[in-house]
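Thread: quick sanity check before group meeting

JM: Hey all, I'm pulling together slides for Thursday and realized we never actually wrote out the predicted structure for the chain we discussed last week. Dropping the sequence here so it's in one place. If anyone has concerns about the input, flag it before I start.
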Amino acid sequence: MDDDGHDGWLRLVGEPVNGEVGVFWDGNATASQQLGGLRLPRVWRSWEHAESDLRFRADLMSHVDEPTCSRTAALTAVPALSEMWWMRLGGTLSFLTEVETDRVAVDNERLASRIQIWDEALPVDVHQWVPAHADLHWAQLTSPGCWVLDWEGWGLAPAGFDAASLYLHSLAAPPVARLVRARYLAELDSRDGMLSQLYIAGRMLDRGDLDGHPAESAVYAHVGTVLRALGAEPGSYRHLLRLVNDRRAGGAGTGPGRPGTLG
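JM (edit): ok, ran it. Output follows.
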C-alpha cells in the first residue's frame, strides 16, 4: 500500500554482494520510468540494502486488479479477448520497438546456446535487435484491460521476439495461435522471428513448461517446421520428429526430452 492508501505489490530480490546483478535487478523500475505510455505496473518506491554477503532490492509497485489470461504461461483454453484487447497489445509491442535502451534481454551467446539444442550447426545470425518485454506469455497479460506484467527482464532481443513468445505459448489453443500468427505474420516468418521461436521453445523446455502440458507435442512439431524453414539438415532434428510422431501415436517414445537429449 502506498502513502495514499492504494494497494500495491512488493517485489523483493536478493543477489550475492560481489556478483553482477544483471538485467533483472531493476527492470520493473526502469520500465516504469521509461515506458510511461504503456499499461504496466508503476514502481512507486525502491530500496536497496546490503547485509553480510548478500544485497537486496525491494520495489513497491501498483497492483493491477485484473485476472491474467491464463494461470499458466502456455494456454490450455481459449480466453475471451476483444478487438480492443488485441489493439492494445499491438500498440504495446509497436511502442516498445521505438524505445531507446542499452538494456540487453537476450544476447547472441545466450540465443545461440538455446538454439543449438535443436541444431548445433544452424547459423545464429540476427539481423535486427529491438527492445522487447522478453518474457511475454499468457500469465503476464491481463483481461479485459490488457495490462502487461513482470518487466524485470525487458531489453534488446531479436526482432519479433515477443510475437514469437506469444505464439509458442498459444499452440495448445489453435484459435488463439491462428490469431497471433495472422496479426504478427511478418515478424514470425522473418529469420529473426524464427530464430526467436527456436529460442523460446528451448526456454520452455528448460523451465519445465512443457512437461505434461497440452502444448508439448505441438511445440515439438513446430520446432521441426521452423528448422525446415531455416534450411537445417534433416538429420539434425530427425530425433525430434520421431519423438513427436511417437507421442502423437500414443507410444512411449523417448520421453519428453531435455535439452541435452534432443539431436
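AS: nice. The two ends are 50 Å apart (CA to CA). The chain is about 40% helix and 15% strand.
JM: adding both to the slides.
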